[in-house]
Amino acid sequence: MVTFIPPYLGQEIKSTAERKIYEVLQNLRLKDAYVFHSLGLPRHESKIYGEIDFVVLCERGIACLEIKGGRVACHEGVWCFTDRYGVEHEKAEGPFAQVTGNMFSLRKILKDRFSQYTQPDNLLVACGVMFPDIEFTSKAQEIIPEIIYDLRTNDITEYIENVFDYGLYVWQYMLSIRTLLKIMVLVSKRVVRSDQQ
C-alpha cells in the first residue's frame, strides 16, 4: 500500500497533470512506498528555491518525478510548453535538466542529513519525467528516453522500477538498507504524528 504525504491533494493544486499523476500513483505496487507531493527544496544547489512535483520513497531508493502537462516539445534546445488554454511558453531549461538538478540537490540534502549513518554515499536517488497528456516524441541531447512516462506507459510500477534501474546504471548510487530504514522510520513517525493532530 502507498502512503501519500500529504494524504490528499488540496484545492489549491491547479495542475490537472499533477492530479492525473496523483491518481496514477494510487496504483503503485511497491512495498512500503511513500509518495510526497510538492516537496520543497530551500537548499537547492543552483536555484534560490526548488520543488519536486512527486517523490517516491521505497526500498529501492528515492525517485524524483517532474510532471509536465499540456503539449510539450523541444526544438533546437528551446522548450515549448502549451497550456490547457493554448498559450505557449518558451524556456531554455527543460524538464530533464530541472528534475536532475532537483534530484542531485535532494541527494546532497539527504547525504548531509544522514551522514552519521553508514554509507551515505550509496544513496540511490533517481528521477523521471512524466507527460500524462501526450506521447512525447521530441529528440534532443538532454532528453533521457529511459525515464519518460507518457500516454504510451501502461504500468506505473514498471515505470518506477525502470527509473530506478536507469538511476542505478547511470549514477550507480545505491541506498544502504540501514540508511533507507532510518529515513523510512523518520517519515513514518511524522505521518503518525500528523494523523494524531
Structural features, described:
- This protein has 197 residues and is α/β, with parallel strands linked by helices.
- Helices cover 33% and strands 26% of the residues.
- It is built from four helices and nine strands; from the N terminus they run βαββββββαββαα.
- The protein has a six-stranded mixed β-sheet, sandwiched between helices. It has a three-stranded antiparallel β-sheet with strand order 5-6-7, with no helix packed on it.
- The chain starts with a strand and ends with a helix.
Apparent shape: globular
Total of DSSP H or I helical runs spanning 4+ residues: 4
Helical/strand content category: alpha/beta
Q: What is the H/E order?
A: EHEEEEEEHEEHH
Q: What are the low-pLDDT stretches, counting only 5+ consecutive residues below 50? A: 191-195
- As a percent range, the share of strand residues is 25-35%
List the helices and strands and how they pair.
Elements: E1 2-5, H1 16-25, E2 33-41, E3 50-58, E4 61-67, E5 71-75, E6 78-82, E7 88-91, H2 95-113, E8 125-130, E9 148-149, H3 156-171, H4 177-196
Parallel strand pairs: 1-2, 4-8, 8-9
Antiparallel strand pairs: 2-3, 3-4, 5-6, 6-7
Question: Quick recap of the structure?
Answer:
With about 200 residues, the protein is an alpha/beta fold. The chain is built from 4 helices and 9 strands.
